[in-house]
Write a structure and sequence with these properties.
The complex is a heterodimer of chains A (369) and B (401). Chain A has 369 residues and is an alpha+beta fold. Chain A has eleven helices and nine strands. Chain A is globular. With 401 residues, chain B is an alpha+beta fold. In chain B, helix 10 runs antiparallel to helix 11. Classes of the chains: A alpha+beta (369), B alpha+beta (401). At the A-B interface, helix 7, helix 8, helix 9 and helix 11 of A face helix 9, helix 10 and helix 12 of B.
Amino acid sequence: MDFDFTEEQQLLRQTVERFVADRYDFDARRKIIAQEPGWSRAIWSDLAGLGLTALLVPEAQGGLGGTPVDALAALEPLGKGLVLEPVLASAIVAATLIESAGDAAASAALLPDLASGERIFAPALYERAARYDLSAPGTRARRQGAGFALDGAKTAMCGGGAADVFLVSARLDDGLALFAVPADAPGLLVQRERGYDGTPVATLLVDDVKLGADARIGADATAAVARARDVAVAGLAAEAVGAMRQTVALTADYLKTRQQFGRPIGSFQALQHACVDMFVASEEAWSAAILAAARCLDPDARTRMRAVAAAKATINRCARLVGQKAIQLHGGVGMTDEYAVSHYFRRLAAIERLFGDTDYWLKEYARAG
Amino acid sequence: MNLSYDDADEAFRGEVRAFVAAALPEATRRKVLGGFELDKHDMQGWQKALHRQGWGAPSWPKAFGGPGWTPVRQFIFDEECAMAGAPRLLPFGLKMVAPVLMAFGSPEQQQRFLPAIMSGEDWWCQGYSEPGSGSDLASLRTRAERRGDVYVVNGQKTWTTMAQYADWMFCLVRTDAAAKPQAGISFLLIDMRSKGVTVRPIRLMDGGCEVNEVFLDDVEVPVSLRVGEENKGWTYAKYLLGHERTNIAGVGLSRRAVADLKELAARETIDGAPALADPLFAARLAEAEIALDILEITNLRVISEDAKGDRRGPGPAASILKLRGTEIGQAISELAMQAMGENAMPFDRDRMVGEVAGNRDDAAAAATPVAAEYLTLRKTTIYGGSNEIQKNIIAQTVLGL
C-alpha cells in the first residue's frame, strides 16, 4: 500500500506544473483561444519537448514506457491549466489503442511519430447513435482488393479537431477493426469545431474512404478499444482533478475578496459550506483518479471494471458539483467569459460527458457485480 | 502508487479472520448480523476475548500494552471484525480517554486506568454535551469548585452514550467562570458510583435507550483525578477530537451494510422481480457502493499519511472522513428502507432484544432492525461534532474562510 509518487513521477509533475505556470496562464490561454485554430502547435511542440507526447509509448518506439500512474502525475497539472492541446487524445488514448492492438508493423509505423509529437493522433471510436457503446459501431469496413473501404460517421470529441490521424473503429465482417485514417484521406470529411469547453473536436463523415492493408491496426480491436477507454478514463480523471482543485482555489479566493453587506462573503456560513462541499468533492475525485490509475490495467476483469466505473461515475458527480457551485458562489461574474471560473465550468461539464456519462457507468458498475 | 496490501498485511488479515471466526460467540455474532440489540455482556465478552489474545487495544502503542499495529493493520482489523459480525469496540475508553491519558495523564493515572480499559474491566462514558451546550461545547456550565483535595461538581451532562453501563466518565467541567469560555475548563475523571451521580435513560425514536442524562449533584472528585493542568481541559478535549482517523469513516461497517442490503434487495421485489434487478434501484445502489469504494481509498490515503509519522491531531482529514462516512452510512440505510417499501412498517423493538430467533417469516422480526437502523443512523451526522461543525473546521483550516 503506497499512495506516493516516485521521485521521477514527482519530477514529471513539477515539470508540467512549472510549464503551466510559466507558459499557460489564463491570459496566454485566452490568446490561443482568440486565434485559429484555437490551440497552439508551438505549445504542442513544447509539450512534446517535455516528453508528454511520449509518455505511454514503449521505449522501443521512442517513448518513455510510462504507466497510467505516470499519466496521473502529468495530467493533473495539465487540468489545472485547462491545457487545450490534445495530450489526452494523442499521448494517452491513441498511444494505448495502437500499443494494445499488438501489431508490430503498425506500432513501428505510427508510434515514433506519436511519441515525438510529429503527428497528432485522436481516437474516433464513438458515434452519435451508438452513444457510449463502443462494441457495435454503425461504421463499416469492407475488404477491397488488398485493402479496405470504410463508410459511416464517427465523432472525435476528444482532441479530434487537432488530429493529423484518426484511429477509426469500424465493423469488419462480424468483428471490430481499427484503422489509422489520415485527416486528409480522400472521402473523409472532417468537420472541425470547437467544443463548448474550447477544446478542438471533430465529427467525421466517412464516405468510401479507401485504405491500404497496412492501415488496419491489429486483428480484432475489441480488447484494445476497451483497454484504451479504461486508460482514457484514468487520464481524464487526472485532468479533472487538476481542474477541480483550481476551481476550488479560485472560488475560495473570491469568497475572501468579494465584499457584500460590509464584509467578505466568505464570512457567511452558507457560502463556506458550499465551498467545503466543493473541496470534499475534489478530494473524492483525487481518490477516484488514484483508483482508476492503479486499476485500469488490472488483469482481473471485475476489479478493473468496478474501479474504472466507480472512478468515472465519481469524477462526473464531483465535476458537476464543483463546477456548478463555483459559478453560484461567484455570482454574475462567474458567468462571464472574462473570468477563469466559467472556463473551468465548461471543461468540467465536458469531462462529465466524455468516455461515458454517469448513467452509463452506474450501469456498468452494477453489471460488474 | 500501489493500492494492494503487501503479503505480510494479507497474512495479518488471515490471522484476524481466523481468530474472529474462532473466538466470536455465535450468539453475539447472530445478534450483530441480525441488527439486534447488544447487552453489556455481549460487548464486554468480546472486549475480554480480544484482550486474552493481546488485541484488547488495537490502536495503542506497545509502550502502553497495545499491539503496536500500523494504521493499515488497525484498518484491516476493524474491517475484518465488522464483516464478521463482531461488536464494534466502544471508543470512549479505548480511543477517547486513553490517548488523552497517554499524552497528558500522570503515571499514576495511566497505571490505574489504562490496563482496565484494555481488559474490558472498566467501562467509560463521555461527559461532554450539556442541555445548553451542543455544538458550542465551550459554553458548558457544569461547575467544579475546588475544596481542599476535592472538586465539588454540579451540573448536567446529556447524550451520554452507555452511561448506564459505565464505571467512569471523563468529563469537561468549568473551573474558572471568569476566564474566556475555552480557558476555564478542566478535564476530570469521575467515578460513576460516586454519591450524587444520577443516570436517567433517554428513549430515542428507534425505541432504544443507549443515551442518557447524567445529573451531577455535589459530586466529590479527588483532585488526583484531574488530567493535566487546571483550566487546560479544552486543549486535551481538542487533542481527542480528530485523533480517530482509522475507523471514523466506518468503512467496514458500511461494507457489511451493503452486503446485507444486497441480500435484502434480492429477497424484496419491485414489479415482480428482485429489487436488485430494478434499474432505478440498481443505479441508486451502485451510487452508494461507489461512494463507499471512494471513501475507502480516501481513508487509506489518510492512514498511509499517518503511518509515515506522527501527523495525528485535529485536521481536515478526520472531518472529511466523518462527513462522507456518515452520509454514506445513512444512504445505505435509506436504500434498505426503500428495498422493503411499506413492508418495513411493522415495528416491535422487543424483537431486537434477547436471542435471535431467526424466523424470517415474522414480519415485525424482519422489518424492525431495518427501520431501527434507519432511525438510529440519523444520529451519526449529529454526534462527534455535527457535520456542519466539520464543515466549519474545513472552511477555517483548509480554505482559510
